[in-house]
Amino acid sequence: MIKRLFTCSVMTFLTAVAAAPPLRAQQPANEVPELRAGNALTLPADFREWVFLGAGLGMTYGPNAPAAGQPQAFTNVYVNPASYRAFLKTGAWPDRTMFILEIRGSASEASINRFGRFQTGLRAIEVNLKDARLPGGWGFFDFGTAPGPATPLPQTASCYTCHRDNAAVENTFVQFYPTLMDVARRHGTVRASYREAPEPAAAGGR
Predict the structure, then answer these.
(1) Cβ atoms within 10 Å, residue 122
(2) Tens-binned pLDDT, residue by residue, of the chain (206 aa)
(3) Which of 80, 59, 84, 76 is nearest to 184 (CA)?
(4) Which of 38, 108, 48, 104 is nearest to 78 (CA)?
(5) Using CB atoms within 10 A as the burial measure, which of 35, 60, 110, 146 is most buried?
(6) What is the DSSP string of 7-48?
């Protein structure tokens, strides 16, 4: 009798599992963009624990170089982990993808460092957000050095046209993240209008 009851219980459990709807991967609560009235965005406090995509030094998109004598800035780019994992699978960014750009100063010849440059104080934080709740599905936010909230820059801001005209994948500069660019090529999601620059020749090469 005990054996029969145990067998029936196991079969009931297996049937219930088989009949249950499949679980869907959901974005963790700390990664969901919090938009308030007027589409004001709250900056996630833990964004430095997100996936680090890369850093740039002294990068400028406009025609003018930084003023002479001005230290070059570092730019650190983070993206929420759920969107990063989705991009690896599909080569596309899902809705509610948030890129956070942290801009820091740079210095040299301090402490034990004699050459090269290292990061210093925070200059600004900017966000590129893919969100269907926003006009056009994308928004750019400038937080300055404060945690926010911040409202989207107007659609007339230059960052919208710059990303639209020059981004390799959707409205994102994936071309500056080599490993993700390989993913986009593999999935065929690089924009047809994007033209890749030739790789620079290696030092001493032909």
Answers:
(1) 12
(2) 444 433 444 343 333 333 433 333 456 666 778 888 999 999 998 999 999 999 988 887 766 656 666 778 889 999 999 999 999 999 999 999 999 999 988 777 778 767 777 657 889 999 999 999 999 999 999 999 988 799 999 999 999 999 999 999 999 999 999 999 999 999 999 999 998 776 666 555 54
(3) 84
(4) 48
(5) 35
(6) HHHHHHHHHHHHHSPPPPP---GGGS--B-GGGPBPPPTTGG
